[in-house]
Design a protein that fits this description.
The chain contains 13 helices and 15 strands. The protein is of the alpha/beta class. The strands form 4 sheets. Strands 5-7-8-10-9 form a 5-stranded mixed sheet. It has a 5-stranded parallel sheet with strand order 12-11-13-14-15, sandwiched between helices. The chain has a 3-stranded antiparallel sheet with strand order 1-2-3, with helices on one face. Helix 2 runs antiparallel to helix 4 and helix 11 runs parallel beside helix 12. The longest helix has about 60 residues.
Length: about 475
């Protein structure tokens, strides 16, 4: 019945030749039977069987009745699974909101901790001490690990802002392989094959590493008895036809006759592989072949989303019994413009005496930011809310118009989440409308999601994520002013 996907009627077990009749059936006196498939979305997942001690007990009427019951059970099964997926999604959304909020508050704390540590490290009492710099350095490293943790929380809650950069694929693969050799099953051999001419890729380094880790974990689960895990990277000669449509959707269609400006990253295992129906659904959220409680079904769907958000693509090739290859295609970095500034030179591009209006509702974060700006030789006016900042700007404008003197700020640096008052995006919009010559830099411990909707989204403000240090702030200011 399961093989052919259709009902089976047994008129008499004593004369049955299609299959071996279990001895227990005969001992119980069972003579005839009727079985129909129990289906889920057209796929047989079980059987509904009825047996009788009478010969030829089941005919067309019983068959139609049992098929109706099977259809009803199949509908109930689909509904139960859909409701469970919905509840799962709602739980994840609730946890996502919670972790996102925690990460936001924690990033404010880390900004204060890291900022004060950086200021402390420059004090003569610390630099002249033989032991104090080591303590400050250890605390700084710990705070950076805390920042990495909040980054993971924000990634889980889908509130992480991707920050693409040029990534050395070979170096990342070697680092990841070293970690996996210590954590995966010792029976899994790991091999790296990177082409000598493999260029960097343009992607968020943390999210790329997370994507490769997700793929590696799936590969481990597909090799319960051990096997080989191969990481490969090479320049992509031409975009495969099956992926060209996805890349064209990004508005930058690849030239089918020219060299593709992409890098191919592949992760291959020789595990159990996937049948066609599993492979077709592998990127669907919540789809998993693992036992309940052992997987969320979000691993490959998250990798797929990362690839698409990074203007790339993800492909899967798998054969049952022979293994699986996940291929991640990512763009190369754009050509660097001539005279591009490096991280050390960018600090010098912040002009001395730059007039800055700082808006931050957290007093301790505000103090750290003000100290950083002062160290960068800026002239700072600090406000605790958007409303206070607007009042200050209007007062300055009135004094200028009245001939009393006064200088308008050249740069607005504002947190996005400003307590119960107006958001930083609202403040930036009002400032840009009334005083378009004031540059805008927004700061957030949360995500780019607050910039992702509404009329403010198209304005393209620069966003500095928390926690940040003095160099990161200087780099962001220089980038804003260069526009």
């Amino acid at each position: 019945m399961l093989t052919e996907g259709r009902p089976v009627i047994v008129e008499d077990y004593g004369r049955e030749t299609r299959f071996a009749v279990p001895a227990t059936y005969r001992r119980e006196g069972l003579v005839s039977a009727l079985s129909v498939p129990l289906s889920d979305r057209g796929r047989p997942v079980g059987a509904l069987a009825v047996r009788s001690r009478q010969a030829k007990r089941f005919g067309d009427a019983e068959l139609r009745f049992l098929e109706s019951v099977a259809n009803l059970l199949g509908t109930c099964l689909q509904r139960a699974q859909t409701e469970e997926a919905l509840h799962h999604s709602q739980r994840l959304e609730a946890v996502g909101q919670l972790t996102g909020g925690i990460a936001h508050d924690f990033n404010n704390l880390l900004t204060v901790i890291q900022g004060n540590l950086q200021v402390l490290a420059d004090l003569p009492a610390v630099t002249d001490d033989g032991f104090a710099p080591q303590l400050v350095a250890a605390a700084t490293r710990a705070s950076r690990r805390g920042a990495e943790l909040t980054g993971k929380l924000l990634a889980f809650s889908r509130r992480q802002m991707l920050q693409p950069a040029s990534v050395d694929v070979a170096a990342m693969m070697r680092s990841l392989a070293d970690m996996l050799r210590r954590t995966l099953d010792q029976r899994i051999r790991i091999r790296i094959e990177v082409a000598p001419d493999c260029p960097d890729v343009q992607a968020d380094p943390a999210q790329l590493e997370s994507a490769l880790l997700n793929i590696a974990i799936n590969a481990r689960d597909a090799m319960p008895e051990g096997g080989e895990l191969v990481f490969e990277a090479a320049p992509l000669g031409a975009v495969p036809p099956e992926l060209r449509r996805e890349l064209e959707e990004d508005g930058t269609p690849p030239d089918p006759d020219g060299p593709a400006r992409y890098v191919r990253i592949a992760v291959t295992d020789n595990g159990v592989g996937m049948p066609e129906d599993v492979k077709e659904r592998a990127f669907e959220p919540f789809f998993t072949t693992k036992q309940a409680g052992r997987g969320t079904g979000l691993g490959l769907s998250t990798v797929y989303g990362f690839a698409r958000q990074s203007r790339g693509a993800l492909a899967i090739d798998s054969t049952p019994g022979r293994g699986t290859t996940l291929t991640l295609i990512l763009p190369r970095p754009p050509d660097a413009p001539e005279g591009a500034l490096d991280g050390d030179a960018v600090v010098e591009t912040v002009p001395a005496g730059l007039r800055v209006l700082l808006v931050e509702d957290d007093a301790e974060v505000r103090a750290v930011a003000r100290r950083f700006l002062t160290d960068l030789r800026c002239r700072v006016v600090a406000c605790a809310s958007g409303e206070e900042a607007l009042r200050h700007l209007r007062e300055v404008a009135d004094r200028v118009e009245g001939g009393e003197g006064g200088e308008r700020p050249q740069l607005l640096v504002s947190d996005i989440a400003l307590g119960a008052g107006m958001r930083g995006t609202e403040l930036a919009g009002a400032v840009q409308q009334a005083w378009p010559d004031i540059a805008v830099l927004l700061v957030s411990g949360f995500s780019a999601e607050l910039l992702g909707s509404g009329p403010e989204a198209a304005l393209g403000w620069e966003l500095l994520p928390k926690p940040y240090d003095r160099t990161a702030l200087a780099r962001a200011i220089a980038k804003v002013l260069s526009r």
